[in-house]
Specification:
Structural class: alpha+beta
Strand content: 15-25%
Strand order of the largest sheet: 1-5-6-3-2-4
Order of helices and strands: HHHEHEEHHEEEHEHEEE
Radius of gyration: 22 Å
Distance between the termini: 55 Å
CATH topology of the largest domain: Chemotaxis protein chec
Number of strands: 10
Number of domains: 2
Helix content: 25-40%
Low-confidence stretches: 113-126, 224-235, 303-315, 320-325
Mean pLDDT: 78
């Protein structure tokens, strides 16, 4: 059964938890699919208040993709917000086209999308004006509302707080996750005054399950309670030592054949990154023990220090709507 069809209550039962009060919360009675659908109602309500205009929000789809596939398509999804949360279950990505952000900011300033005759304005080829300081601040407020709505959704299961919001134009340089890690992309359609665009959330496939694990850990004998080194979970954990990564075009991939050499930019002397449950936690050297490959840990990576959720840079997430006659 697909994980999105399970309720947090069912996940908790599979984990062996018992006598946990969280089971009485609304989020524990709904499947993850229903949570995603419910997020549309939450976002509709909060954005309507923010922009003082009725906005339609509909859940479109939930799909799976690898982090490598996500990174390859990230350049077409700008601006791209990356959220860090507490508890930390891996990065969360959010995308809303900058032109639509500009429309919403326009409404926040009291503007209208229609001209005096009640018709949509005809687009003109004039250059996009540079956003003003107040427009950038309002865009920042909009992005923060998206972040807070996401955290509010999951707080039905476990209190989740945003600790940082970044705008990443080039994920390929950050190495946030292993290329083969599976992500869940949840897509919504936003419509206001005839304008429509898609809002996309993307996070590690096991993000919801890990939230349930953390919530029920004190009530589950199978889990280790209070050990921050493993996020409060017992049982097995996945360790991945990443040798290197690179990018290839679709044509290059199609033409790969036996004997081809894939060249990367990684120096041979550079240590490997070792991922623990999808989070980069160690640097290591590659070697062998007997006739088996092995890695030797040489550095423990510190978790990134929390940063305040900030306004977007002036040149990134908002396009100013051209003046309308």
């Amino acid at each position: 059964m697909d994980r999105v069809d399970l309720t947090p209550n069912e996940v908790a039962s599979l984990l062996g938890a018992s006598n946990y009060p969280q089971a009485e919360l609304p989020g524990f009675q709904r499947s993850f699919r229903e949570l995603y659908r419910g997020f549309a109602d939450l976002l509709r309500s909060e954005l309507t208040v923010l922009i003082d205009r009725d906005i339609s929000v509909e859940w479109i789809s939930t799909r799976k993709l690898t982090y490598g596939e996500f990174v390859l398509g990230a350049r077409e999804r700008q601006p791209l917000g990356r959220i860090e949360t507490q508890p930390e279950f891996g990065p969360v990505f959010v995308h809303l086209p900058s032109s639509f952000v500009g429309d919403l900011v326009h409404f926040m300033l009291g503007g209208r999308r229609e001209n005096s005759a009640g018709q949509k304005p005809t687009p003109t080829p004039t250059p996009t004006p540079t956003p003003t300081e107040i427009e950038n601040r309002l865009a920042g407020t909009l992005w923060q509302q998206l972040v807070m709505s996401y955290c509010k959704l999951w707080s039905e299961i476990l209190p989740v707080q945003p600790i940082a919001l970044h705008y990443d134009p080039d994920l390929s340089r950050l190495g946030l996750l292993p290329a083969r890690q599976t992500l869940t992309a949840v897509e919504y359609s936003l419509t206001v005054d005839g304008a429509s665009e898609n809002l996309t959330w993307c996070f590690a496939e096991d993000w919801p399950v890990r939230a349930v694990q953390r919530a029920v850990a004190p009530y589950c004998p199978a889990m280790v309670d209070g050990d921050s080194s493993n996020d409060g979970f017992g049982g097995d954990h996945e360790l991945i030592a990443e040798l290197a990564n690179t990018q290839m075009s679709a044509d290059e991939l199609k033409n790969l054949k036996i004997g081809d050499i894939l060249q990367t930019d990684k120096d041979v002397a550079e240590p490997l990154v070792v991922w623990l449950d999808g989070v980069a936690r160690f640097r290591a050297d590659l070697g062998k023990v007997g006739d088996r490959k092995a890695v030797q840990i040489r550095e423990v990576l510190n978790r990134q220090e929390p940063e305040p959720v900030s306004d977007p840079p002036a040149d990134a997430p908002v396009q100013k709507q051209a003046d309308e006659e």
